[in-house]
Design a protein that fits this description.
Layout lengths: L1 H7 L3 H14 L4 H13 L3 H25 L1
Length: about 70
């Protein structure tokens, strides 16, 4: 919620830090990576936005593998 609020206030460096923290705390969730990508893209940092999106894809992939394992 904090990162989204900071993004809405256009406090992008702070929002980026908030989303980075969430990706470290909850690496299994794709949403913080996606939000991080949006903030980085808004700052014109497209290479880093791509890295964040790749993190989101890895998180989704891991969830799908886990779901398959549970049947």
């Amino acid at each position: 919620v904090r990162g989204v609020a900071l993004t809405s206030l256009e406090r992008l460096p702070e929002a980026e830090a908030a989303f980075e923290s969430l990706t470290r705390e909850y690496p299994e969730l794709p949403e913080p990576y996606n939000n991080l990508a949006v903030v980085r893209a808004a700052q014109g940092r497209l290479d880093l936005a791509r890295v964040a999106l790749e993190g989101a894809i890895r998180a989704v992939h891991a969830r799908l593998l886990e779901a398959r394992a549970w049947g």
